[in-house]
Structures are given as C-alpha cells and as structure tokens.
Amino acid sequence: MTDTITEKASWLNRMKSGLVKSSEKFAQNLAFLSGGGRIEAEDLERIEEALIAADLGPAVAARIVARLAEARLAGAIDMARVRQVAADEIARIMEPLARPLLVTAFPRPHTILVVGVNGTGKTTTIAKLAHNFQEDDYAVMLAAGDTFRAAAVEQLRVWGERLGVPVISGREGADAAGLAFTAMEEARASGRDVLLVDTAGRLQNKAGLMDELAKVRRVLGRQQPGAPHDTVLVLDATTGQNALSQIEIFREVAGVTGLVMTKLDGTARGGVLVAAAERHALPVHAIGVGERLGDLRPFDARAFATALTGAAP
User: How many CA atoms within 13 Å lie on the side-chain side of 67?
Assistant: First the structure.
C-alpha cells in the first residue's frame, strides 16, 4: 500500500511539473488581478479573455466567469480564489470524462485501434499503453498498421523488443486491413489479452485515410464482433487549438471513442484538453507528461485541474 501511495504521489508531482508552463501561462494572463481585492464587473470580461488566451476555449471561459460572478457577490476575490473557482469548474467538466482504458472484451483479445496525425507521439504512446497493460498482467500484442511509414514500423519493432511484446508487421506499403487480420488471428491463437493496432496518420488524402481505416474496422469486426473495442485518438498538446480540428476529422474518419493527450510536459497549452472535453465530450483515458514508459497514466480530472490552474490541492 505504501509503495502504491508513493508511486501515485510521484506521478502527481510529475504531472504538476509537466503542467508548470500551462500554469504559468494561466497566471500571466491573469496578472492584472495580482493586487487582490474585490473583482469588479468590468474585470470579468478581461478574465474571460485571459482564460480564452490560456487555450481553455470560449465555452469553458464563460462557465468559469459565470462562477466568478456568483462568487464576486459574496465578497472580495483574490488570485487564489480565481484559481480555485477555475479548478473547480474544470474538474466539474472533466470528471465525467475521466475513464481509464479497461480490458473488457470476451473472448479475447480486447482490440484497441490507435489513430492520430503523424508526429503526435502515437507509436510511442502505443508502447506506453502496452507497458501499462503489462503492469496489470495482461498479455499484449502490437500491430504495425502504419504500413507506409517504414520508420513507424521499425520504431514499433524496437519497442516490442524492449517490452518483450510480439509485433505483427508486413512489407512497406502493405494493406493495413490485411495486416490487422493477421494480427487478430495471431493474437487469438496465442491467447493475447490486448491487441494494440497502429494506423496511418496521413491527412493529406482524407478520403483515402477514411477508406483505409473503415476497411481495418470492418475486418476486425468480422473476425470478432465488437472489435475494435476502443478507437483512441492520440493528441499532441503542443498543437493547441489545432487539436480540436484533429478530433473532428478523426471522429469522422475513424469513429474515435476516446482521447489520450501527450507532450503536456513541453507546452504551455494544456488548457486545450479542457476545451476539447467541453466541445466533444469524449472520454479522456490517459495523459503523458514525460518520455519514460511510466509517464503515461490514467487521467485524474481533479489533479489535472489543480495542476493546470495552480490552485491549492
């Protein structure tokens, strides 16, 4: 129990450290409140603009300002109170969406299709998810379905060797659906609990990507009703508001069922995850705040909200 508590505290500290740039941006945008005292009605508009500038989006900013307006009537509000109100509202938005990836499919394997734009850290995220499943004693298999990028296939093979996880791959340019078929057959034959399938992230030809992903989904579904059981979109926090358009595209082309956000350690744009949650209401499965295998963990809405805003825990 002590080890579990220590590990959780270590992870929360890393998340807080990873979000420090976002927290600093939040504070800088609200620097005009540093004098404390009562917030006047005209200040609320400036606060709303500052929250939007912190990548929280207009809808979330409006919700926070509405809460602040209520609090203002009760007395003086200083920066600490603004942080707390913002954290409470962000947690209220995010908590219903904090859902870890669970292995529920029977018969096995539980199949997870992983999608996202090239460069988001998708392949590394697959390795980190595999590691997390291994920690829970699940047997994992990977499928290198981004067949047009030799580097992605090789990267997944390297991760597979490091983790001791089999990787199903084919020649460069091979049919992704055919590879998914082979991977499913291998996973079933070898008794794997989880099959993680990498996919292409080329948006230059949206119609072609749509056709490819639709074919992969059909093939998996024919082999095992209900597969893929999850379709997870990997987002790069450093892209800011562009992440919102990526969600729209991949919901259309791939039927995304949940999100993982990476690179929160290298950006001041962590607020975009809140904007994404408010707009799309998709489950947030995990966030990444570092390069190590253990730096991708299930999403904790309250911890994220306090780290993002700099509010007291």
Answer: 16
Distance of CA 150 to the CA centre of its chain: 25
* Distance from the Cα of residue 258 to its chain's centroid: 8
Q: pLDDT tens, 52-64?
A: 988 999 999 999 9
Write down the H helix ranges in the chain: 2-18, 20-29, 41-53, 58-72, 79-94, 122-135, 150-163, 176-189, 206-223, 242-254, 272-280, 301-309
Q: For the purposes of burial, counting CB atoms within 10 Å of the CB of 103, is it exposed (0-12), middle (13-18) or buried (19 or more)?
A: middle
Which conformational region is residue 137 in: left (phi greater than 0), alpha (psi within -120 to 50 degrees), or beta?
A: left
193 phi, psi to nearest 5 deg: -85, -35
Cβ neighbours for 215, distance < 8 A, ≥ 6 positions apart:
176, 177
* pTM, rounded to two decimals: 0.93
* Statement: residue 226 has pLDDT above 80: yes
Could you give the residue ranges of the DSSP H alpha helices within 121-262?
122-135, 150-163, 176-189, 206-223, 242-254
Q: Which residue type sits at 248?
A: E
